[in-house]
Amino acid sequence: MIKTIGLLARKSGWTHAQFMKHWIETHAPLALAVPGLRRYVQNHIGDERTRADIPALTLDIDGIAELWFDRPEQFIAGRADPDLSPKLDALEQKLFASVFYREVDETIAVLPNRAPAPEFYYR
User: Fold this and answer.
1) How is domain 2-48+58-103 classified at the architecture level of CATH?
2) pTM, rounded to two decimals
3) Domain spans, the chain
4) Buried (b) or exposed (e) across 55-91, using 16+ Cβ within 10 A?
5) How confident is the model at residue 116, as a pLDDT?
6) pLDDT tens digits, residue range 10-41?
């Protein structure tokens, strides 16, 4: 299982509320149709938490997307779907000013009040 995260920033002219509404109501149904996608999570940016002892990172984003696939090549193949890709591309060009996608290894450090992590959490 692989997870790709995307840091997303809205285009100028959109309020955060407009961006969120469009991301949830219009983009999510299209994203869920990507072939091979096992899980799709939208993390909506809320309040900033800072520390007095460490400088804050300046990062102006509106959301973080998580896309889960069984294998890395499924992400590439899913985004190349001839029926879906043009629709997603057009919508994302309208919605996003910038994106930052990276494949990540998720390591479960703590699962409070839960049984051990399911096997699929580990590669």
Assistant:
1) 2-Layer Sandwich (3.30)
2) 0.79
3) 2-48+58-103
4) eeeeeebbbebebbbeeeebbeebeeeeebeeebeeb
5) 67
6) 999 999 999 999 999 999 999 889 999 999 99
